[in-house]
Design goal:
Elements (H helix, E strand, L loop, with lengths): L1 H19 L4 E9 L5 E8 L15 E2 L11 E6 L2 E8 L5 E6 L6 E10 L3 E4 L4 E4 L5 E5 L5 E8 L7 E5 L2 E5 L6 E5 L2 E6 L5 E5 L5 E7 L2 E7 L8
Parallel strand pairs: 2-5
Antiparallel strand pairs: 1-2, 1-7, 3-5, 4-5, 4-6, 6-11, 7-10, 8-9, 8-11, 12-13, 13-16, 14-15, 14-17, 17-18
Length: about 230
């Protein structure tokens, strides 16, 4: 009964959004677990008739009702302004965050795409690859059981300007996809990444003292857990 409810809500979402917006881009992403016992769907609509604001009263955005009826239940939803949505209508889908919650028993999942209009792309930050959605297209992935996976899937991902930041002992490197990274303390190698993803972070809280970060052949010096001198 739960899966029937999900399908009915999904179909209603498509009809509601189609009636309230003229999409320049649109897609339905359905996801199923390997057994087929877990299913969910997300509707994405980009239209000049919509806005970045949450518009649930007009039906342009639909708040997510979580599936929790069994150990096989899974959830897929967009997140906008702190609100979980099973259908999102916006004037710009760029960098729309998508969260996936796996079920308690399985690790293998497949997305299937339908109702595709215009250009909609799905970026997988873990695999560092982007998929252009097409009707009847699929994308398979793995996720740990009983886990909420945020910050992995992004719609129409637009990378931030290239940056390297070291803050609270965490090294964050963005926009340097494909470049090489080496982190050393003296002669000891702490990290060696031949090809960085678009977004990369490294927790260096276990280190102390001067470290050398070599990014694409350029050296940077950072201090992990620096000594603090009390003010007089």
């Amino acid at each position: 009964m739960k899966s029937i409810k999900v399908i009915m809500v999904s179909a209603l979402s498509v009809m509601t959004l189609a009636a309230t917006a003229t999409p320049s881009a649109m897609a339905k992403i359905s996801v199923a677990s390997a057994s087929g016992n877990g299913n969910d769907a997300l509707i994405l609509v980009e239209s000049a008739d919509c806005s970045a604001d949450i518009e649930t009263t007009t039906g342009k955005d639909i708040v997510k009702i979580m599936n929790d009826g069994s150990d096989y239940s899974i959830n897929l939803y967009a997140v906008s302004q702190g609100t979980n949505l099973s259908a999102i209508g916006t004037d710009d889908l760029s960098n729309t965050a998508v969260t996936f919650a796996s079920n308690k028993l399985e690790t293998d999942y497949t997305m299937t795409f339908s109702n595709v209009i215009g250009t909609v792309k799905l970026y997988d930050a873990v695999e560092d690859q982007e998929i252009t959605l097409a009707n009847a297209g699929t994308y398979s992935f793995t996720a740990a059981a009983n886990t909420v996976v945020a910050d992995r899937f992004i719609i129409n991902y637009v990378p931030a300007a290239p940056s390297i930041c070291f803050n609270y002992n965490v090294l964050e490197i963005n926009g340097h996809a494909g470049e090489a990274l080496i982190v050393k303390k003296g002669a000891d190698e702490i990290a060696n990444v031949a090809s960085l993803p678009a977004k990369y972070s490294l927790d260096l809280s276990a280190q102390s003292g001067r470290l050398v970060v070599t990014l694409n052949g350029q050296d940077y010096q950072i201090d992990a857990n620096p000594a603090v001198t009390p003010a007089n």
